[in-house]
Amino acid sequence: MTDTAFDKEVAEPFWPRVRAALASLRPVSASRQLSYDQPAIARTIGLRPKLGERIDEELASGWAAAAHRHVSLSLLVIEVDAMNDYFIAYGKPAADDCIASVMQAITENLPRATDTCLRWGPSSLVVVLPDLPVLMARASAAKMHEAVRRLGLSNKESHAGAVTVSMGLAVGNPRGSYDKKFFQTAVDALKKAQRKGLGRVETIDLRPAQDRKRKKAA
Questions:
Q1: What is the mean pLDDT of the segment spanning 162-189?
Q2: What global pTM score does this model have?
Q3: Cβ neighbours of residue 147 under 8 Å, at least 6 residues apart?
């Protein structure tokens, strides 16, 4: 039976309370968190002066949790390929909508509801993946890449003819306080992917070097 079957004066006070109670029992998924006014989010979040602080906070939190539990930390830095050319060819509103769609697709394919996709600059995204084995992190990156491909967004300025993303994945075993070089490692992996072409994923695994350094220090 639908709400319309009830007298309006009775139904309106009752059903909002029921929905509110049910909502309080259900965790809000990452995709639902992102779905509200998505184009507006895409237009403004890259301009917020404290966005870099938010990424640092997310990374520092993930780093501390991983260090405490002695587990790995994975970080994805993602960039939409040929976005400057897309902006020139299609205009700012279309570019905003493109980034919003890509961000939505990636968010909907995060491995866990607690994971977060953050906007970094005009055409880049950051995903922090604490306590996720490297094989699962790579599989998640591949899934996100495929989700963007399935959007089928055209880009006549790209050799691919469609919107694609390049990804850099950094993996480490955090110890001690947060090392900001970890973020740069993911950026370096992204640059390596971009040098190889469009829609590539490259990984830099810091764990072997970290383990050797710790053994020498022991």
A1: 94
A2: 0.74
A3: 105, 106, 108, 109
